[in-house]
Amino acid sequence: MMLRQFLSRDSGAAALGCVRMLPQHSYFASKASSPRAQNRNTAKSARGSTKFRKQVPSKNLGGEGATAKERRADRRRHLQRDDENKITAKSFHATAESTSAPAPVRVAMHPTTSPCLFVADVPGIVALGGADGLVPGGIEVGSIGFVSPASLPDQAPPPVEWGIPEFSFVGRSNAGKSSLIKTVMKNISGAGKIGDRVGPRVGKTPGKTKVVNYFGCWGSNDNESDLSPRNCNMFMIDLPGYGYAATAGVEEKELWEERSLLYLQSRAPILQTGEVLPCIYENVLAPLNTCFLLVDSRRDPIMTELDFEYLDYLDEHKIPVCVVLTKIDKINTLSRLKAFNEMSIVVQQRHQSGFTQLKPEVLGCSSHSGEGINEIVDYMKSGGVWRDEFYPKEFWEEEEEEEV
Length: 404
Ligand SMILES: Nc1nc2c(ncn2[C@@H]2O[C@H](COP(=O)(O)OP(=O)(O)OP(=O)(O)O)[C@@H](O)[C@H]2O)c(=O)[nH]1
Ligand SMILES: [Mg+2]
What we know:
Rossmann fold; seven-stranded mixed beta sheet; metal ion binding
C-alpha cells in the first residue's frame, strides 16, 4: 500500500514520507565519491576522453563575445525551428498506418496537452500491476503513442517532477535504436504495423534521429480521456545517436549529441553540477529508470572507443544501464556467441569495478525477426531497475515495515 502510494504520481505526501526514510548517507553519494570513481575520472582526463563531458547547458546564449559553446546554443535554437521531426499543424489530420492491428488504430490529438500529442489507442494485451499501473510489481502498458519531440530538456513533455519512469535508448548512429522502440511498441500494443506518425522513424543512413523523441505507454484499460502524458505509465525515449552520421556535418552532429547528453543529465540521479540526487528529486523519483545502450552485434571489436566513452558518461551520472546487442538476425550462431562473450566480459569487468548500475546480463535482439524483444519488454514491464538494483535494499525493507 505504502509502496503503491509512493510510486503514485499524485501522492506528494507519501513521497515526502519516503524522503525521510532514505538512508542518511546516500547510496549514490557514496558511489560518486568512492576512490574508484575518482581514479576512473582521473584516468579519463589523462587520456583526454572529454567528448561526452563537455556538454553543459549554456546559460548565456550567444551575443557579443560569445564563446563557441554559446554560439552552439544559438544554432541549437535556430535548428529547433526547422527540425525535420517538428510536428506541424498538417500532421493533426494524419491517420495511423496500421494495417494488421487487432483493432483499428485511432490517432487523436489530446486537448489537455501541447498540440502535438498523437495517441495510438490499441487494445492492450497485458495488464500487470495494481490500480495505478505503476507499482513495484510492474508497469502496466497496453496503449502506445508518440507524445512529443524535444530539442532541449525544458521542452520535454513530462516534467521531471511527475516522476514517470523513462526508458531511453542510446548508441551509435544506425545501431537500431528507433527500430527497437518501434518493435517494442508493436509488441506492447499488439499492432501489426506502427506508422511513422505514431512510432519513431527508421533510416538506412546513420543520423536519422535528430531530436529527443518521447513515446508514451498507457495502461491497457485507459480510455481516450486518460491518454495524456500525465497519465502515462512509462516513456520510451529515442535519442539521436553518436558517432558517424551521413546526414549532417560535424557541427550539426555535435548538436544532436549534445541534445542526448542534456536529456540524460537532466533526468539522471546525478546532475552535471555534481549534485547528487539520491533517487529522489524534489520529492519524486529521478525519472530515468534505465538507459538501454545499443551496440550492433556485428561490430568487431564489439565496443568502440566512443561506446566506452558513453559508458563512462553513464557511469559518472549513476545512470542504470542495460546493454543490448542489436541486429542478431544478421549473424550466425558462432558469431553470436563471440559477440555475447566479448560484451559480457566488458560488462562484467565494468560492473565489478564499481559500475553497479550496469546490468550484468547482456541482452540481444533483432527488430526484424523479433528475437529477444519479449525479454526487453518484460524487463520494462517488471519495473526495470526500480526494485532491485537501483534502490538500496534497506529502502524497500523500511517501506515494507511501515506497511505492517
Ligand atoms: N537486419 C536488421 N536490421 C536492422 C535491425 N534494427 C535496425 N536495422 C536497420 O538498421 C538501420 C538503422 O536503424 P535505425 O533504427 O534507424 O537506427 P538508429 O540507431 O535509430 O539510427 P540513428 O537514428 O541514425 O541514430 C535501418 O536500416 C534498420 O532497418 C535489426 O534488428 N536487424
Ligand atoms: Mg534513430
